[in-house]
């Protein structure tokens, strides 16, 4: 294998590794930015929902409870779960790729029932009381989501009024939701979790496309660079060395001694050509003697 071929193979390997590295780095960087953006948007939605819930709990609910009788229950006015769910249902009409769920192990409202993954999340909160929030990515129906979650714990009599003993619950509530699910909760028990889901599927797809585009651009530049190097090597390195090799062999055999070395380059090959030319002239003088 000639010097040109070895050099081109080495350069192709170096450029190829560099191109793959740039493409992979681009994907990881874009993925990281997508996750940070999803987290930022998720936190904004989360804080809005919780602020709405806190305002209801601290300001509205005490007044509402003073107005209605003990056994009366109007979900839209007296349930924090209904309030947050209803608020988000209206909020998400103009949004796509976002979801919010009050995932509950044993809910009054069946759609709030935690699925298998959410059940594991709630149990994680229950097993780690010091854990105030959790975040990360998860897969659902072939789609990738970034999630933010916070635990929901039973907080005293306000929660137990509706979720304690079924016999103590408002009669209207029992008529609406039944007497089977959503009762016998214990004070301080982690029974549910707020979970905000932000789809990052499109962002990840764009990151992959960007990485592939960058890789193809790099591959194209690599091809152009290799062609340029090939032409440069052929003209200024390989061909002059071949000509000098032929001339050196002719001198060693005493052939074509009157033909001077015609390579004129201001580099190492030019220096070699000058040395061979001096050798030729010395051999000519010796032969004339």
Automatic annotation (TrEMBL):
Keywords: Membrane, Transmembrane, Transmembrane helix
Keyword match Membrane: yes
Pfam families the UniProt entry points to: HAMP, Tll0287-like
Keyword Transmembrane included in the entry's annotation: yes
Gene3D superfamilies, per database record: 6.10.340.10
UniProt xrefs under InterPro entries: HAMP_dom (IPR003660), Tll0287-like_dom (IPR021796)
One of the GO BP terms on file: signal transduction
GO cellular component: membrane
Spans through the membrane: 6-29, 212-233
Location of the HAMP domain: 235-288
The protein's name: DUF3365 domain-containing protein
Lineage: Bacteria, Pseudomonadati, Thermodesulfobacteriota, Desulfobulbia, Desulfobulbales
């Amino acid at each position: 294998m000639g010097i040109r071929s070895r050099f081109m193979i080495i350069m192709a390997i170096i450029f190829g590794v560099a191109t793959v590295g740039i493409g992979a780095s681009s994907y990881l960087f874009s993925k990281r930015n997508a996750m940070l953006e999803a987290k930022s948007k998720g936190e904004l939605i989360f804080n809005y929902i919780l602020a709405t819930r806190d305002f209801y709990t601290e300001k509205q609910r005490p007044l509402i409870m003073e107005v209605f009788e003990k056994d009366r229950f109007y979900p839209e006015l007296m349930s924090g779960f209904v309030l947050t769910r209803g608020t988000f249902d209206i909020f998400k009409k103009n949004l796509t790729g976002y979801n919010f769920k009050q995932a509950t192990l044993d809910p009054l409202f069946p759609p709030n029932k935690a699925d298998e993954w959410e059940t594991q999340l709630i149990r994680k909160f229950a097993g780690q009381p010091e854990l105030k929030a959790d975040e990360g990515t998860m897969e659902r129906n072939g789609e990738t989501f970034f999630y933010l979650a916070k635990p929901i714990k039973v907080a005293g009599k306000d929660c137990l009024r509706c979720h304690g003993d079924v016999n103590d619950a408002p009669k209207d509530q029992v008529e609406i939701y039944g007497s089977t699910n959503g009762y016998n909760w214990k004070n301080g028990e982690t029974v549910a979790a707020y979970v905000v889901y932000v789809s990052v599927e499109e962002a990840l797809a764009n990151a992959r496309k960007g990485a592939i585009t960058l890789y193809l651009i790099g591959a194209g530049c690599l091809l152009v660079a290799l062609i340029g190097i090939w032409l440069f090597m052929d003209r200024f390195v390989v061909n002059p060395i071949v000509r000098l090799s032929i001339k050196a062999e002719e001198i060693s055999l005493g052939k074509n001694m009157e033909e001077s070395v015609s390579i004129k380059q201001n580099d190492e090959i030019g220096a070699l050509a000058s040395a061979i030319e001096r050798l030729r002239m010395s051999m000519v003088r010796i032969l004339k003697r």
